[in-house]
Amino acid sequence: MTTIIAGHFQLQEQIDGARQALLEAGYPEDRISSFYVNQPGQHDMHALGGDRTLSPGAKDSPEGLAKGAATGGAIGAAIGAATVPLTGPAGPVVGGLLGAHVGSLYSFSHMKEKGEPEQGGENTVAPRKSGMLVAVALPDGDEDRVVQLLRRLGANDIERADGTIAGGDWKDFDPLSLPRRIA
Fold first, then answer.
1. Which residues are in the Glycine zipper domain (predicted)?
2. pLDDT digits over 70-120, tens only?
């Protein structure tokens, strides 16, 4: 793995100009990568779309589902047992199933609402924005030179990463990783 410096641009012409400037500065073409970064949630990493297997806002739902189903099932079975003289032997079974279903709906109260702060979620780094990205794998000690070049060319959100660019492809780029921006 090597140090990679990347800068965001708005237009394809800016990317072309940045690639040309990096080539003229002596960086080999196979160590320069440029591509479009989709907005968060649109990286199509799963067959059904999206970026994550579980929704971050629903991560506590399974715990709520288990608690609600167990509590609701027990209460429903108790009520069903109390109504055995009226309902017969099916009362506790039906009461338990109905109570478990109603109790499982309790899990929705464990979901985080949109805009609600998450406990322990004091993330101060904004996610990577969508747009064109140009990145270059650096030899040791060349970081300041590339950062200055990208700034001069109008790059936004210049970031540092560790990874591998080979054949012009940033092979281990993770669009979900939080960028380490350079001030």
1. 68-106
2. 777 788 788 878 888 887 888 888 888 887 777 777 666 666 565 556 566
- Do residues 93 and 72 share a domain? yes
Could you list the mean pLDDT of each consecutive 10-residue stretch along the chain, which spans 183 residues?
93 95 95 87 55 60 73 79 82 81 70 59 69 91 91 94 94 87 86
At 160, the amino acid letter reads R
Domain residues for the domain of 177 are 2-52+125-181
* pLDDT at residue 175 in the model: 83
Contact 129, 139 (CB under 8 A): no
Domain match, 31 and 75 both:
no
- Which strand (E) or helix (H) includes residue 21? helix 12-24
DSSP letters spanning 102-171: HHHGGGGGGSPPTTPPPTT----SPPPPSEEEEEEEPPTT-HHHHHHHHHHTT-EEEEEEEE-EETTEET
Assign 178 to helix, strand or coil. Answer: coil
What is the pTM (predicted TM-score) of this model?
Answer: 0.61
